[in-house]
Amino acid sequence: MSRVRLAARALRLALNKAHADPTADYDAASGDYDAFFSPVMGRHSIAALDAVPVAPGDTVVELACGTGHLTEEIVRRLNGRGAVHAVDKSPGMLRVAKEKVLPHASAALHIELSEGDMDAFVQAQPSASADLVVVGWAICYTKPTRLLAEIERVLRPGGRVVVIETRADAHRALTESLERIFADDPSLLTGLIRVTLPKDAATVARWFVKAGLAVDVQREGAQTIPAHTPEDAVEWVQRSGAAAGFKTAVDSAREQLVLDRIAAGLGEILAQQGVLDIQHTFVVVAGTKPVNSTASTAVRRRSGDEEASVV
User: Fold this and answer.
1) Higher-pLDDT residue of 73, 246
2) Domain of 150?
3) Which of 52, 60, 84, 304 is at 20 to 30 A from 98, Cα to Cα?
4) What CATH number does residue 300 fall under?
């Protein structure tokens, strides 16, 4: 019965368009992101970039650049020549990125970091203007095929795109614990976290194909998060940005209550299994805009309205 009440609560929130905004969580995590997320998952981001060549003189568009961990590596690989156009919605994350990256700008290396929505940003880019588009840990916040269709438009023929994204089964112990908490007391849920997390790399590859992109690389990955206690796990997901959307999805007056209940649920798992093994699973897919591409972006866009998962 509790899950029925939760479903009814979610339906009411959906009808009222009460959608959680992850920006507040990323702002809150911006000062700690490079101490928590980047040391753990950053090497996987860099490895994803290895799936596409970055050459001096390239024009690179990066969507959801965060604190600039990948942006800095892109700049290094451009070796002083080219252009980087990056965007992020979080002012806090962007502030950190600017401190890292803007000092590398020069007459031969144009660097532009903008605050804003990545869908609007890519729509504003000229057609056939980019050699590479990078989307790190963020395609889940969009209509993926629609975004990829815009990316296909922005890429020059032969241009590349790489996506790294969290998989739908990531942090399973945490997400299942949160679902039980909301099922027991649906009033704790005040906004819906709308994300389109892929089941696997093949799912993302299908998004690429629908958008008119050829798939060159698709692979799965997993990383155990550094959490040996329930408190460690709760701290990591908060300070790494992995819980983006939580702050506006939960009754703010009872946020700590929810966190305490999550920790208690993880404590039960630890007592039963003797270890907390929480996996951040992810996918990497890279592709190319065919040189002879004649597909209609408008047609692909109309066919690309994926259903977002809702928490």
Assistant:
1) 73
2) 2-310
3) 52
4) 3.40.50.150
